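Everyone, study these two lines:
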Amino acid sequence: MRKISIIGAGQAGLILALALLQKGYTPTLYSDRTADQWLNESRPTGTAYLFAETIDIERALGIDYWSATMFTGEGLHTHVAQPGGGPPMTIAARTPRPGAAVDQRLKFHAWMNTFEARGGKLVIEAVTPTRADEIAAASDLTVLAAGKADLGKLVPRDVARSVYDKPVRRLAMAIVRNTRDWSEEVGFRAVKFSSLGPPFGDVFFVPYTHKTAGATWCPLVEALPGGPLDIFADAASGHDVVERLRTFARDHMPWDYDIIKDMEYVAEDPLAWLTGAFPPTVREAYGTLPSGALLMPIGDTAITFDPVGGQGGNSASWNARFVADAIIARDRHPFDAAWMSGVRDGYWNARGKHAYAFNNMFLEPPTPAFMELMKAAAGSRRTADRLFGANVPMPQNFFPWITDLGQTLARIRAAEDTA
């Protein structure tokens, strides 16, 4: 059996490892913490709201342990602030099936235990660049699933495909309870998105299943650097994040304030918050280590998404499944540079570039085509469901029409005319 090593036991690394186990491979998985440390001593890695189509990947591996209990969202609910003030533009779009954000600490704990129980080899080790070279030199294939960690720099940035070279937003998140949802307004529980525009940024409220508190909400702040929403970088606690957001919402998000004014940080979990910033980055197909061995990135290491468009966690799972299928199809042929490039380009063309482009649309002023789509979705729930709700889980379905005003207008007419 070929020796496959996976460095990183996050979402992409674990899905790849479990997919290979399912097909008879016995990969070695390296994690910088134990399953119990993931559960009890770690911060969330992000919100990671997954659409139903992505959760199906977990279901196919027999690791979808939360479908019966997770706090789901049934679609997207957006308020777009108007530059001149006044009532915001409202868009409500149902997705074909419910999605959810389950605390990744809970997932990684369960999946690591499942991986070992099914016969996988788990090594607890904080892998350094030197150690990564040693692992790669002794393996037929070494995959780097280190998320946004510095180890990802072992694989060069793809200058041609990376749109940004510095953070576009400054981020903050915290898990809260005692927040009503917006279902009375739109008729279903949804991911709530307030697009405030310059100089502010955006604020999300995501239905979330916390590891102990259960059904909660995760507010996620996407602040434009230096603007009035960029007030979280020096936050000292989750309580601090929540209080700053409450004050901001009172002054700048009146349509949301009554619903969230009583929110409370989950005090029993002092680690359930984050602040930070990073550039959305695409990496090359592989990195060449000093020994000459190759290191192949997947998930967030391969394509790092800003959270704004909800594509990062979903892409990580799809990329892991794509790479698993490619490894299995490779059989006994070498995992060489040409193969890695082909796999990277295959995923990029099938889904990656579309998810990256769609996600980045929320970081820039709206194009005329995107603005027309939002206006049409605000005016028609049916159009919103068919053109937003149905396509956000599978972003490749937006292309190429969303890049062209004429094609977008034709799609809008077709959505409105079809019974």
About this structure: The radius of gyration is 21 Å. The first strand starts at residue 4 and ends at 7. Residues 4-44+104-164+281-361 form a domain with the FAD/NAD(P)-binding domain fold (CATH 3.50.50.60). The chain is about 35% helix and 20% strand.
